[in-house]
Hints:
It is a single chain. A five-stranded mixed beta sheet has the order 2-3-1-5-8, with no helix packed on it. The chain has a five-stranded mixed beta sheet with strand order 4-10-9-6-7, with no helix packed on it. Strand 9 and strand 10 form a beta hairpin. The protein is an alpha+beta fold. It contains one helix and ten strands. The chain has two domains: 1-33; 35-174, Cupredoxins -  blue copper proteins (Immunoglobulin-like), CATH 2.60.40. Helices cover 17% and strands 46% of the residues.
Amino acid sequence: MVTRCQRAVRFTMLVGAVMGGLALAGASRAEDRAPTVHTIFLTGLEVKGTTTADKLAPPQVDPQELSKGFGFKAPGEADEKAPQKWEVSSYVFSPSFVTVRQGDRVRLAVFLVNGDEHEVLITAPDGATVAIKRTWNRGREYQLEFVANQVGSYQLTCSTHAPTMAATFFVIPR
């Protein structure tokens, strides 16, 4: 004789199996879908922070020695009218990480807010150049497009401000 508890357990297992099967069917449908086009809007900008030497001592190591993407203005340089003021900055792309599926087309629309010139290129996971190095300038929008054929990380890099000014397009298998 099957108890009420045993029936509840069987029912729960049956519902779990059906739900699991539906989840797997949905996952396989997502993988079988045709490649899609992603239009991604990126901004190239310089993030700045300031304070004064009486509140916080400036860094002992000039941040510009750590990365071409970092900036530093020491006390007396940042603001002539406020000799205690100092400033740090970093060039970045935002967003800096995007995930797409293998075979998808990636369309980038990149607007540059800061930095007069940026030498940019896109490389594939195997290191091959996807978009040749070109110069981008402040106040303009640039468009690039590539097909994410390889699984792994495609990199948009500004060699002028590397390694901080980079964006990763992570490609997962279809």
